[in-house]
Design a protein that fits this description.
globular; 254 residues; 5-stranded antiparallel β-sheet; mainly beta; 17 strands
């Protein structure tokens, strides 16, 4: 549910308010524990503004609805230069992480110093990468888990020949205990403007699992913009890609 006028009764006046409501009727005493995050799509930048529930909520028969009263300010949302509303259309979304209620107890452990997790990768001799479908950054470690950035110089999938693609991938998960299944990462990938301050930044959040897989952006930046010397992204035949991890959670069965 989306309240475009803001929920004034719950101090959400001046903001978009978003809520989740459990449709299935629960039995008395039955609960569903869940975390969630909301999305507002920026059609101009091709990325999402996200708002995360950091604590988790208990949905029940008496309390089937939870939400965030201040998701995005109306002044920002309604500003035509921001890109959230184009041709009188806008896109909202939600992602829900349900913690199963069975014989196990699942806990989310916040890695408190994740705000300090940053990595910079300089890709040299870019012009010689045209024949290379994918390349990986040197491995780096956050909280004892090894990661890598993946770069597709000519794009991945449908974006091949159109854009560069950049992804984050978990490499070595041997530091995870046998009971840990997932790591939630809220991160930002930046392609530096080496001439000025027009960096390209894209934010995402995803669950990384022990069975591998990568998350990121097939259409990170068009090849035409990348190769435009006035843009400053490709300077002296090199790119600078930065990763900033804002939040990390471990989901553990105990």
């Amino acid at each position: 549910m989306v309240d475009l006028n803001g929920n004034e009764d719950s101090a959400g006046d001046g903001y978009i308010s978003m809520y989740l409501k459990l449709v299935d009727e629960l039995k008395p005493g039955e609960v569903v524990n869940a975390m969630f995050r909301f999305f507002v799509y920026n059609q101009k930048r091709d990325n999402y503004f996200t708002k995360q529930d950091m604590i988790g909520k208990r949905f029940s028969l008496l309390k089937p609805e939870w939400g965030i009263r201040k998701v995005l300010s109306l002044s920002t949302f309604n500003n035509p230069t921001k890109g959230y509303v184009i041709d009188d259309c806008c896109v909202f979304g939600a992602e829900v992480f349900v913690l199963e209620n069975d014989s196990r107890v699942e806990t989310l452990s916040l890695i408190k110093d994740a705000v300090n997790y940053q990595y910079s990768w300089t890709v040299s001799k870019y012009s010689k990468l045209n024949d290379q479908y994918c390349m990986s950054s040197p491995a780096f470690s956050f909280d004892g888990i090894s990661w890598t950035l993946l770069l597709y110089p000519r794009g991945n999938g449908r974006e091949e020949g159109k854009s560069i693609s950049i992804f984050l991938r978990m490499l070595d998960h041997s530091n995870l205990s046998i009971d840990e299944e997932k790591v939630f990462v809220d991160y930002e990938i930046t392609l530096k403007d080496q001439l000025g301050s027009q960096d390209v930044k894209k934010c995402d959040a995803a669950w990384f699992q022990a069975d591998g897989g990568a998350w990121g952006y097939p259409a990170f930046l068009s090849l035409s913009d990348l190769k435009n010397p006035s843009k400053g992204y490709l300077l002296m035949d090199k790119l600078i890609i930065e990763l900033d991890v804002k939040t990390m959670f471990r989901l553990e069965n105990v």
